[in-house]
Amino acid sequence: MKSTIVAAVAALLAAAGLPGAARAEGLALQPCRLKGVEHEALCGSLRRPLDPAAPTGVQIDVHVAVLPALARHKKPDPVVFFAGGPGQSAIALAGPLSRQLARVLNRRDVVLVDQRGTGRSAPLLCAEASPSRPLREVNDPQWQMAEAERCRGELQKLPYGDLRQFTTSIAVADVDAVRRALGVEKLNLVGGSYGTRAALEYLRQFPQAVRRVVIDGVAPPDMVLPSSFSTDNQAALDTVLAACAAEPACRARHPNLRADWSALLQGLPRTVTVPHPLSGREETLTVTREMVIGLVRLPLYAPVLASALPHAVTEAASGRFAALFGLAAALGGGRAGETRLAGGMHFSVVCAEDVPRLDATADRPGADFGDSFAVLYRKVCADWPRGRVPEAFYRVPPAPVATLVLSGGSDPVTPPRHGERVSRALGPKARHVVVEHAGHGVMAMGCMRDVVFRFIDAPGDDEALAVDANCASGVPRPPAFAPVGAPGTGGSR
Question: Is the confidence at residue 334, as pLDDT, over 90?
């Protein structure tokens, strides 16, 4: 039986065009099954020093999954995907990625590397709040800060608990070690959200190993996350309010929407009774301004959810907060395994790369969103061990290869202003495509999947940069949500 299994594994590795364990510099791949992936994958891990300056010191296992190309004669340059967050596991996204990149997978392997601190790669996981936890806790910034401090203490007790060793610059060196272990000369980089920062850093450090780049929802290395959040969230909310005023049906249902929003904020704090969105149990809690700002921020990520904000705001201004809490809870969509962030890795990155530059940022706080987000991060990062970030990390050099920059026009966290700035820095090898009414991340949209495939598959840089992306211009803004029975919906009150 053992010899049969070994033979089967060797055959699968050969069919995938990947080196066997003996030739893979410590990366032994074995057949595995990944949630949501139709075909068998290959999984393994590569030993890496926790501290690059101490190569014989503490070691960690960086976990890797390869989705093999389906064609017998495949292309030699795989796609490597950088997940978002920071703190998201790339391997946990294997299911949706196998569908989004289905055409790519016909001829190219897709390599998923759980960045150090995420997934099973020396995970820096904080205790996840139960979905049914009381609303007054999970939506309270003070509770969130206390949880982050408690998590830091627990993580530092781990064998790999030196939280300074989880910066983006160190992490992309792990990815290049995986590339070398796989015997691959060139990679096609695909990154989403924070993964765009990782992709840009990989391109900066290892330009000779890159064939093509796709970055979707750009979070540049010089973005000061806690500050830009306020600026960009405000712009996204203002767009939702303006869109309602410009849509006759929405304007008729919410004629005083901006005034209702202002009245809602001015009437806080306020004690309310609201059903828990998941358990249905009624809770009485004090709603603060910071809590409402946090509730509004979440649905802004997805235009279909943001379309219900006018209704939720009007309801809350009248003292009925159920819609606002329910809308914020809807973002997870039941995909907790895919969307869960490793909180320790998140803070290790942001505290090292963003927070030290808060005082120098040119971003101004949004009129409504203010600086509460930045204040929270300052407090958490005050005692968080801070990794060293090379000054060159913050500069984006000209791209040596074709790079597709994607932005959603309604994105509340990585809007087009960041993509445009990075595209200019990347130079003539970069092309910026904006999907006007899309939210955070556009690569998964139907027509954009084909654009990404054709960009990667094009034989040369000029052909890649000339790929037709006009299909994105026709994506409409979702009309404002109207409850059943509202005037104009065809129902009765």
Answer: no
